[in-house]
Hints:
Layout: E1 9-11, E2 14-16, H1 28-32, E3 36-40, H2 45-56, E4 60-65, E5 86-89, H3 98-102, E6 107-110, H4 117-122, H5 124-145, E7 150-156, H6 179-197, E8 201-207, E9 209-211, H7 224-233, E10 238-241, E11 246-247, E12 249-251, H8 252-263, E13 272-274, E14 281-282, H9 283-293, E15 299-302, H10 306-309, H11 321-327, H12 335-349
Parallel strand pairs: 3-4, 3-6, 4-5, 6-7, 7-8, 8-13, 9-12, 10-15
Antiparallel strand pairs: 1-2, 11-14
Helix pairs in contact: 2-8, 5-6
Amino acid sequence: xxxxxxxxxxxxxxxxxxxxxxxxxxxxxxxxxxxxxxxxxxxxxxxxxxxxxxxxxxxxxxxxxxxxxxxxxxxxxxxxxxxxxxxxxxxxxxxxxxxxxxxxxxxxxxxxxxxxxxxxxxxxxxxxxxxxxxxxxxxxxxxxxxxxxxxxxxxxxxxxxxxxxxxxxxxxxxxxxxxxxxxxxxxxxxxxxxxxxxxxxxxxxxxxxxxxxxxxxxxxxxxxxxxxxxxxxxxxxxxxxxxxxxxxxxxxxxxxxxxxxxxxxxxxxxxxxxxxxxxxxxxxxxxxxxxxxxxxxxxxxxxxxxxxxxxxxxxxxxxxxxxxxxxxxxxxxxxxxxxxxxxxxxxxxxxxxx
Length: 354
């Protein structure tokens, strides 16, 4: 995987930067070295990339994942790290196991979730159990067994529903269009309530389309970009539904940076922040850029399936000015870099993800 970055920003004892524009310095190694860090959904896309950075910073990392096939967990995501972290094959719906997992942890990156919008409509009870009830149980375990833990919760832009104005700020009304969005809103609200009432030090990040190495490409349960990437690498055309919708995309390294910045900053406690990406593009522009990066790639324009159209949010891109002003975060990778790095990863690794 070829990354376009060079060293120029000092994080305590290490030197890191992304391109020529950098986040303000923070004591990353000091914040995380020898700290106990729990990541739910840790064998998944974002969780495993987060784990890689934390291991590099000498954190004591425990990953919690159920490895249920329909979700994003994949042992390949931690290839080379097996001896440097601990894995607990636990379902967050196993409420009795949660106290033992959260006890003694300094940080909790809470990324466990059911992400498929379609699955949430066909199996709403499972979505409710994972995205709502399990989140409350995690917070209760923290309140009772580790009230000083620092939590960052992965929420979603899906809470906003169909935007009434663009770009979407955190003040936009919350109007989810599917069961997944409703349950994620409840999970988010629990984290904010426990911060306000019980003093549990929680922060919420509302993610947009996150892409990069280790994302799910087997199907579109995590992101439609995954099935596009798979088709391209396999030499097949992929489907673009209509193609005019505007979207923004966050490269996974930028998302990881946001989680780490938020957890290390007490000023983020009790707050909600949007993540975003480079300037938004239409889905057809995204498809054209992908095809340009993959020799022989192609796509077909298709009509939007009626059953999916009912829960589609239309155009969306985020205003991430709040997290930029408060924490100094902003995307460092261009969309072209993100797509190029992702394609490079799956040209080599695809057999482990299908």
